[in-house]
Amino acid sequence: MTDLLTHFHARKDDMLDLLGQLARRESFTADKGHVDQLVDYLESALGSFGAEKIQRLPQRDVGDFLLADWNANAPGKPALLLCHIDTVHPIGTLRATPPRLEEGRYFAPGALDMKAGTVIALFALQSLYRQKRLKRPVKLLLTTDEEIGSPHSRALIEAEAAQAELALVLEPATPQGAIKTARKGSAKYSLTIEGRPAHAGIAPQLGINAIIEFARQALEINALNDLKYGTSVSITQVSGGSAGNVIPAQVAAHIDTRAITQAEMQRVEQALATLYPKMPGAKVRCHRHDYRPPMERQAGIFERAAEIAARHGITLEEGASGGGSDGNFTAAMGVPTLDGLGAHGDGAHTLQEHIIIDSLPRQAAMVAAILQEW
Prior knowledge:
The chain is of the alpha/beta class. It has helices spanning 3-10, 12-23, 32-45, 93-96, 111-130, 154-161, 210-222, 262-273, 301-310, 327-332, 359-373, and strands at 53-57, 65-70, 79-84, 100-102, 105-107, 138-143, 166-169, 179-183, 185-194, 232-240, 250-259, 283-292, 318-321, 337-338, 345-346, 354-356.
């Protein structure tokens, strides 16, 4: 076992203690008050992990953000570590499923996604700082809106990434324990169909049936799928009609799209933007309201990380994910990005969410090695 692995294995209990502190502070994205209590705790703790400068960035609609600096006066561009501390679990989930230890696993809402990632980042930084092994500036950004697509933090993430040499994203590893070098992009669309109402019994011929128009559009939209190559176009919600005896005048639908490459994202967007009515007099509108670019695999980035990790007795594997993260933004900018550097585990977003406890020191050693040698 190398020095870094030995060091972090000796600190495993400390890491688990901090994870318990974070997990016991519920942080459902939509509950700013509770999220800010976790922000308060972390703001007060960052100094003990070596942060030289701590900025609290107030937010109106979500929990406040924290931006912390280590080794700010060192030469070179900084490494940027990205963590989010919000979760999908509503306040009160902790009462129904309190944290527990079971056969080398730690169960708690939000532990895997991704409070354990914050723990790993802090211990890696603290160790390097205390041992004076940090050779470059490092910034840690803790955000609170990733679970809703990062609408408030995206501009800040991209601004910090534009100045960075490397972006490390502490999202959980794949269920097999691999880091993530590719993620699908995603876009969400609202589809609205406008027809004309009429009495379904007296004068149905005077109506324009928005549901029939939608059905024809839905078949065309469904044909955009290319699942073999990772492109999915899914109509996930539909509502329409006003009464059982009225020709429906309106339909509203939600469309979820995902693709591996930017070219595929653009193909789907162009097709949805050019939908046209199939029934005379109908109106069709499709509006994109949420977009996250694909994180396409960057040549040479994983290989370099794997070489560094191997020198410290850690074997890295790589994988891909159909879900997005803030790493999608940094990778799309061309910033070298490694994602999935957080804990190993399973059950994210469920009541069985858990981490593998022994992955905490392993991942901390890996992150520390990359920060030290990149």
